């Protein structure tokens, strides 16, 4: 599905929301053999995600940041990419009803805006945006943040270990990537960014693949802000900011 970019902000917003709704429906048709609970926040948290798209992620921008997939205490809870609870409430100022997936991991219930646990990756990323832009409105004039894959895979263990999309069985991974690639390509067409920034290696690789060497766009990456990444646990904001400055984004 190829979309033409809208003639104005309202047209683009409508097209982004319509395409994202289709994306949510498409991933629901997939079946996976992993022994996991699978959450799709584009389904049960759709009102919040739609509000996020409408306010902050559906206008032409200079830079598109893309993560891998939702974190269990971020987008899985709030419906917002890298959606750390404090950032959603105080920086983005979003508040919409959030439902429940059909089945929940006992260790990972969806609490929505009542969740008490902060997602470190989201706190770091949105904190950097707040430090630089001061307001979410100013941020949205230049940047948008998306996730490549909307699904969360949590293994059926007591610790609910996160299974990342690159670890899925090959055929299932490729089927998922086909849908995600098409969606990402359409979002790039609609938002028309100059810079495509992968948050982490996997997202960078997917952006490279989808961009297909288009020289109109610059593809780069920043360190993933996860505390599981040792390089991110000291001076992550300085390292990420340096990438933006060196590229001329900031």
Q: Which helices and strands appear, and what pairs or packs with what?
A:
Elements: H1 9-28, E1 36-39, H2 41-44, H3 46-56, E2 63-67, H4 75-78, H5 85-91, H6 120-133, H7 136-142, E3 143-147, E4 152-155, H8 170-191, E5 195-199, H9 201-211, E6 218-222, H10 236-247
Parallel strand pairs: 2-3, 2-5, 5-6
Antiparallel strand pairs: 1-4
Helix pairs in contact: 1-3, 1-8, 5-6, 6-7, 8-9
Protein described:
- With 250 residues, the chain is of the alpha/beta class.
- Helices cover 45% and strands 11% of the residues.
- The protein contains 10 helices and 6 strands.
- A 4-stranded parallel beta sheet has the order 3-2-5-6, with helices on both faces.
- Helix 9 links the parallel strand 5 and strand 6.
- Helix 8 packs across helix 9.
- The radius of gyration is 17 Å and the shape is globular.
- The mean pLDDT is 95.
């Amino acid at each position: 599905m190829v979309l033409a970019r809208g003639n104005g902000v309202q047209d683009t917003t409508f097209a982004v929301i319509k395409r994202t709704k289709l994306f949510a429906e498409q991933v629901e048709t997939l079946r996976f053999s992993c022994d996991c609970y699978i959450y799709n926040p584009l389904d049960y948290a759709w009102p919040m995600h739609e509000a996020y798209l409408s306010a902050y992620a559906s206008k032409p921008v200079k830079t598109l940041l893309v993560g891998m997939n939702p974190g269990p205490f971020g987008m899985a809870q709030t419906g917002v990419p890298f959606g750390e609870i404090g950032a959603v409430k105080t920086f983005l100022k979003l508040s919409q009803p959030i439902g429940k997936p059909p089945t929940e991991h006992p260790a990972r219930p969806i609490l929505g805006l009542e969740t008490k646990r902060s997602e470190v990756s989201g706190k770091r990323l949105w904190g950097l945006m707040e430090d630089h832009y001061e307001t979410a409105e100013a941020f949205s004039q230049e940047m948008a943040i998306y996730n490549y894959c909307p699904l969360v895979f949590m293994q059926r263990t007591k610790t609910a270990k996160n299974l990342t999309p690159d670890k899925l069985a090959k055929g299932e991974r490729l089927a998922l990537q086909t849908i995600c690639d098409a969606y990402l390509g359409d979002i790039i067409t609609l938002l028309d960014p100059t810079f495509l920034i992968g948050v982490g290696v996997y997202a960078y690789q997917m952006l490279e693949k989808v961009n297909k060497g288009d020289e109109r766009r610059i593809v780069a990456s920043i360190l993933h802000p996860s505390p599981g990444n040792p390089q991110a646990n000291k001076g992550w904001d300085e390292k990420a900011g340096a990438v933006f400055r060196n590229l001329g984004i900031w």
